[in-house]
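pls read this protein.

:::
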Amino acid sequence: MKPHRIILVRHGNSEGNADKSQYMTVPDYALNLTPTGIAQARQAGREISQIVAAETVYVYLSPYTRTRQTYAYIEESIRANVVKAIEDPRLREQDWGHLRSPDVNAEIIKERDHFGTFYYRIPDGESGADVYDRMSSFLETLHRDFEKPGYPSNVLIVTHGMALRLFLMRWFHLTVEEFENLRNPRNGQVVVMGKKPDEHFVLLSELEKRS
C-alpha cells in the first residue's frame, strides 16, 4: 500500500556551500554541515514532526556525510516515528569526479548552464541524465517496498539539490524543459508529496522557478 506522503529534504548548508575552496581539498562526499546547516536540519525535523504527527516513517538517505548529519539532526524530532532508516548510494548527489579549484568549477558550471543542465556531463563525473537513470532504479526499489506488508505511512528521503529535483522529474514525468526551469530546493527545505484518493501523488510544496 502506498504511503500517505513522500517527504524529501535537501541537506543543510555544508562546508562546500559556504566555502567553495573546500572542493580543492575535501571530497564532495566528506563535506560536513556548517552550524547554519545544523540549524536548518533541526528546523526541518520540527517541520516533519508536525507533518507526520504520530504516523510511522521509513527513511532513505544518501550516504554522503552531510546527508547523514542532516538526518541525525532531523531524527531528534521524529525518532519515535521512524520504523527503519537505510542508506542508498543512488540518492547521492551528481558526481563531480574529483577535487578541483573553485575557478575550474565555476567554468564547468558556466559551460553546463550554456549547454543544458540535464544533458551536460561533468568531466570525469555525471550528467543530469545519469542521475535521472539512478533515480529510475531507485523508484523501482521504492515501489517494491510499498508492497511490503505494514509499510509505514510516510517516506522520508534525505538527499541533495540536483538529486531531489531529478527525483521529482522522474516521478512526475516532467519534460527536460520543465526540469531545467526549476531551481534546486534551498538547503534544509522540506518538499512534500501527498497521496490523493485515486492513489496518485501531487506536489504540495512549491519549488522556485528560474526567471
Remarks:
- The chain has one domain: 12-193.
- The radius of gyration is 17 Å.
- The chain is about 40% helix and 15% strand.
